Amino acid sequence: MCDLIRETHRPPAKCQGYACLPLATAQGDNPLGRFEDKLILITGAAHGQGAQEARQCIQEGAQVFLADIDDETGHRLAASLGPNAHYLHLDVAQEADWAQAMAAIARLGPLYGLVNNAAIYRPQPLLDTSPAAFDLHVQVNLRGSFLGLQYGARAMTRCGGGSIVNISSTAGLRASPGSFAYSATKWGLRGMTLSAAASLAAHGIRVNAVYPGPIDTDMLKIKSAHALAERVKRVPLARLGTCDEVAAAVLFLLSADSAYMTGAELTVDGGATL
Questions:
Q1: What's the pLDDT tens digit per position in 164-201?
Q2: What amino acid positions are annotated as catalytic residues?
């Protein structure tokens, strides 16, 4: 299994003149899927984007650990996805939960991929944000991703590398005055991603981030219909994104298709940040 991970991070053949040999590990060259026999952990996987990321990884041959605090929904989803899906209770802000999750994964094999997807979103402007609400965003969105990076990287270094994808937001690329605490933590996650990419490259671990814009999920539906309509007006492609579209970007960054990318910031926002 460790050999499989090292293969994923092996550089492509050298370019000869103006022609370059294609990556042998590209999706189209592997009939078994990009993640055959690889173990991937996805946090916040019981709903929305995390659930769709899990589905697509399993379709590509991965053994996926769906981690969440919604145990009933998580267990039900894992059962529906078949034998390659495994549910874990994981409160990302609790270090003990991370230790238990990594021990459970290690019993099946080495960890190849981690998606730090879990987050909370409670939109309030600065003057209406309580210290408790701010602290909760920091605990889940920042501390949770920090613990994921640390525990995930420690597991990956034992087999020569891996791939980590942090799910950020376009609120971490520009001002978002209506969601002060959420935006602050997503800006923090941006710095965390870049620092981790620089720190972990020597260990064969790539760290990249996806920045979704307005995506059609339950998290976004807490906004009023009018607020959603106004949000879509600011999107050049004139619609909400889908969980499928975010998941496709995540799988690209997890896979060998992006073997020469680390510290990348991939926006999936319909052009909203242009």
A1: 999 999 999 999 999 999 999 999 999 999 999 999 99
A2: 182
As a whole number of angstroms, the distance between CA 160 and CA 1 comes to 11
Q: Tokens 């939960």 label which residue? A: 97
- The span from the CA of 109 to the CA of 107, in Å, is 6
**Residue extents of the structural domains in the chain:** 39-268
The Cα-based distances of 213 to 31, 173, 216, 234 in angstroms read: 32, 10, 10, 11
Cβ neighbours of 58 (radius 10 Å):
21
Angle at 268 between CA 33 and CA 69, to 5 degrees: 70
**Residue reference for tokens 């307005």:** 214
Phi, psi of 97 (to 5 degrees): -65, -40
Phi, psi of 255 (to 5 degrees): -90, 175
Mean pLDDT of 208-225: 83
Nearest to 91 by CA among 124, 40, 122, 46: 46
Convert the pLDDT of each residue in 119-174 to its tens digit: 999 999 999 999 999 999 999 999 999 999 999 999 999 989 999 999 999 999 99
Q: What's the rounded Cα separation, in Å, for the pair 51 and 24?
A: 29
Per-residue DSSP letters for 86-140?
Answer: EEEE--TT-HHHHHHHHHHHHTT--EEEEEE---------GGG--HHHHHHHIII
CATH topology for the 39-268 domain: Rossmann fold (3.40.50)
